[in-house]
């Protein structure tokens, strides 16, 4: 599909057929997530692919019921310690030539690192979540391209989901994404008109 067609076709799906999703498709959507861009290539996203019916039932205790009706639920998370690897990520980028011939000015090197280290925990979480959101949308658009339905779900209980999935202290769940074949065909949902979005053209 053309990218714009995928973007137009995507809907939040809240009703799924029980038909299984081929493992090959799961790999493809996870690969799309892996390729997402992130600040200083931090890649703070981590995922749990939940296929087990029992685990999905357990998850349903801590989120909206429809989530567990999809044959697969991807728990999209961040590792809140990922920022510690910033120097390593920057070195990889530098070695790959990402900054060759580019003057990063005040945004490069030590100055940037100092600013990053000065971020408090909330700011670090927000920054990692922002990056994670990009990878989630990659996953969702690739799923749409493969004919699968998905839905962003942020209505869940953090501690409950973490407990069900036995996630460590440094892992924070950002969203649950049910993945399966849609059992509904919703019309496009309303959007604000362009003139409400464009503050100005200068
Ligand atoms: C960050 C984010 C969080 C969302 N959380 C939920 C949610 O918890 N439950 C839900 O049913 N839909 C959730 N949605 C789906 C939105 O309601 C939906 O994207 C919006 O109404 C537009 O509909 P559409 O996705 O079909 O175009 C979420 C979407 C986003 C982007």
From TrEMBL:
Keywords: Flavoprotein, FMN, Oxidoreductase. Its cofactor is FMN. GO terms for molecular function: oxidoreductase activity. It comes from the Bacteria. InterPro entries: Nitroreductase, Nitroreductase-like. Residues 7-181 form the Nitroreductase domain. Belongs to the nitroreductase family. This is Nitroreductase.
């Amino acid at each position: 599909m053309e990218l714009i067609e995928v973007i137009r076709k995507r809907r939040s799906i809240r009703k799924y057929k029980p038909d299984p999703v081929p493992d090959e498709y799961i790999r493809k959507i996870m690969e799309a997530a892996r390729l997402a861009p992130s600040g200083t290539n931090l890649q703070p996203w981590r995922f749990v692919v939940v296929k087990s019916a029992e685990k999905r039932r357990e998850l349903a205790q801590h989120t909206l019921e429809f989530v567990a009706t999809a044959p697969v639920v991807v728990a999209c998370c961040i590792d809140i310690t990922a920022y510690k690897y910033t120097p390593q990520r920057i070195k990889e980028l530098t070695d790959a030539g990402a900054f060759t011939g580019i003057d990063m000015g005040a945004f490069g090197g030590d100055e940037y690192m100092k600013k990053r280290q000065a971020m408090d925990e909330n700011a670090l979480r927000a920054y990692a979540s922002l990056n994670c959101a990009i990878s989630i949308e990659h996953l969702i658009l690739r799923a749409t391209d493969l004919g699968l339905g998905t839905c962003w779900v942020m209505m869940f209980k953090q501690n409950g989901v973490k407990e069900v999935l036995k996630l460590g202290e440094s892992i924070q769940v950002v969203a649950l994404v049910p993945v399966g074949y849609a059992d509904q065909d919703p019309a496009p949902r309303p959007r604000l008109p362009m003139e409400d979005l464009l503050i100005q053209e200068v």
